[in-house]
Amino acid sequence: LEVQLFSQDKIPWEKLAFPVIRKTLTHYFQDRVVNQFPVHVSEMIPPVA
User: Fold this and answer.
1) 17-19-20 Cα angle (round to 5)
2) 3-state SS of the chain: helix, strand, coil percent to 5?
3) Could you tell me the pTM of the whole model?
């Protein structure tokens, strides 16, 4: 298991292991801009194989 801290502009998006992490970080950065942090509820639908 490898863990590192990154600034927003240095996140290796293509190397994130799970789609939910990408979605969570995207919500967080968008929320941070407006300084409001609502609860986000959504579905993670797997891609069709």
Assistant:
1) 110
2) 45, 0, 55
3) 0.81
- Are 13 and 22 spatial neighbours (Cβ–Cβ below 8 Å)? yes
- Band (23; pLDDT cuts 50, 70, 90): very high
Instruction: Check: CB of residue 44 under 8 Å from CB of residue 23.
Output: yes
Q: What pLDDT score does 49 carry?
A: 83
Q: Can you say how many angstroms the Cα of residue 32 is from the centroid of all Cα atoms in its chain?
A: 13
- At residue 47, the pLDDT reads 84
Question: Would you give the DSSP letter of residue 17?
Answer: S
Tokens of 1: 């298991």
